[in-house]
């Protein structure tokens, strides 16, 4: 059976067209206009917008926006379920199959850097997940502490231990899981895979990237306004509804701000403190995004729009994006 990575190589042979930028930079608004102009459909690169009902806190496109342009990879599972990159690749391949049959362009947009990396550079797939083994390793992390398991990883796979932080439970467990399953270090698997693909992982798939850039003070101001707006739009009500209908999986609760809003709903913190913590976490996340995007020097950067910018300036930005994407 053809691997999902090979399917994606075929489906993306003509290139990846993506709009990137930090949280609150205005990606979604510009992507909507560009997709309309190009006759494209939007494909989300967002690990949290896959969850149904997590709309306000993930800044998911509204029903009216989705009526203008078709959106993909939204609302795929309940917040009580786990969603991982393996499922993302499979779901993505199915979407791209559909778009190819209909001869429709795909414009990727979203802020999950790892999904962008997988899209552009492929992913080492490794052996299949052993659920029982993973559960045992996760239980050991809880009982013994991550530091103990990180020390164990350092003994059997020093390169992976140097790359994976002790607090990164998910990647720590996966590295130990691969070693326990195969007797071979994850880093060795990755090195052999890169050699086998002839360096394809390093070269990556063809791509045209457009980024939105703005100064840090302006980004921080937008983030603060965005958090206020989300709280005013009913973020607390959204969390209440999820809590009574199955709750959050360990993956879903990692979405920016949801742990803080859940604490607010439970009366464990004040609105002002929750707001401040969410804004801080979002600023930190946006800085990590900016660092991540520097890994793609071929990106064409455009200045992010001012909130009240006139329509002619926005039209010029759309035209510039279309040119950079090769769709003019």
Quick overview of this protein structure:
Helices cover 57% and strands 9% of the residues. It has 328 residues and is an alpha/beta fold.
Structure description:
- It is a single chain.
- By secondary structure, the protein is α/β, with parallel strands linked by helices.
- The protein folds into two domains: 4-122 and 204-325, Rossmann fold (3-Layer(aba) Sandwich); 131-200, Histone, subunit A.
- 57% of the residues lie in helices and 9% in strands.
- It contains 16 helices and six strands.
- It has helices at residues 4-11, 27-38, 63-68, 85-102, 113-121, 131-144, 146-156, 158-163, 169-182, 186-196, 200-203, 216-232, 235-244, 258-265, 271-293, 311-325, and strands at 16-20, 40-44, 71-72, 105-109, 207-213, 300-303.
- The chain has a six-stranded parallel β-sheet, with helices on both faces.
- Helix 12 (216-232) packs across helix 15, helix 13 crosses helix 14 and helix 14 (258-265) runs antiparallel to helix 15.
- The longest helix has 23 residues, at 271-293.
- The protein is globular and about 60 Å long.
- Residues 195-202 have low confidence and may be disordered.
Average predicted confidence as pLDDT: 90
Count of the separate structural domains: 2
Q: Which fold name is given in CATH as the topology of the largest domain?
A: Rossmann fold
Parts with pLDDT < 50 across at least 5 consecutive residues: 195-202
Strand order of the biggest β-sheet: 3-2-4-1-5-6
Strand elements, count:
6
CATH class category of the largest domain: Alpha Beta
What amount of the residues lies in strands? 5-15%
Distance between the termini: 38 Å
Element order, helices and strands? Answer: HEHEHEHEHHHHHHHEHHHHEH
Quick one: overall form? Answer: globular
The named CATH superfamily of the largest domain:
P-loop containing nucleotide triphosphate hydrolases
Please give the largest β-sheet: 6 strands, parallel
Class per helix and strand makeup = alpha/beta
Number of continuous helical runs: 16
CATH architecture of the largest domain: 3-Layer(aba) Sandwich
What integer value in Å does the Rg equal?
21 Å
């Amino acid at each position: 059976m053809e691997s999902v990575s090979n399917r994606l190589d075929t489906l993306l042979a003509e290139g990846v067209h993506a709009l990137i930028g930090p949280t609150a930079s205005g990606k979604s608004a510009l992507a909507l206009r560009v997709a309309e102009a190009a006759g494209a459909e939007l494909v989300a690169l967002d690990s949290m917008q896959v969850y149904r009902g997590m709309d306000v806190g993930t800044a998911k496109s509204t029903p009216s926006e989705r009526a203008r342009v078709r959106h993909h990879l939204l609302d795929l599972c309940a917040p009580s379920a786990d969603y991982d990159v393996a499922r993302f690749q499979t779901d993505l391949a199915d979407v791209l199959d559909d778009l190819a049959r209909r001869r429709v362009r795909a414009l990727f947009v979203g802020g999950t850097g790892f999904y962008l990396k997988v899209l552009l550079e492929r992913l080492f797939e490794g052996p299949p997940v052993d659920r029982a083994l993973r559960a045992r390793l996760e239980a050991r992390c809880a009982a013994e502490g991550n530091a103990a398991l990180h020390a164990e990883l350092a003994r059997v796979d020093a390169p992976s231990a140097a790359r994976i932080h002790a607090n990164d439970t998910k990647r720590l467990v996966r590295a130990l899981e691969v070693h326990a399953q195969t007797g071979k270090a994850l880093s060795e698997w990755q090195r052999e895979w890169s050699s086998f693909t002839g360096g394809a992982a390093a070269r990556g798939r063809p791509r045209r990237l457009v980024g939105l850039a703005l100064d840090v003070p302006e980004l921080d101001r937008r983030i603060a306004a965005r958090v206020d707006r989300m709280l005013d739009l009913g973020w607390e009500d959204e969390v209440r509804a999820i809590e009574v209908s199955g709750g959050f999986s360990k993956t879903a609760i990692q979405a920016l701000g949801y742990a803080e809003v859940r604490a607010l709903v439970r009366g464990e913190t004040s609105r002002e403190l929750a707001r401040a913590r969410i804004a801080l976490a979002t600023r930190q996340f946006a800085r990590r995004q900016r660092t991540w995007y520097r890994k793609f020097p071929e990106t064409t950067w455009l200045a992010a729009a001012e909130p009240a910018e006139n329509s002619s300036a926005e039209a010029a930005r759309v035209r510039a994006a279309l040119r950079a994407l090769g769709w003019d």
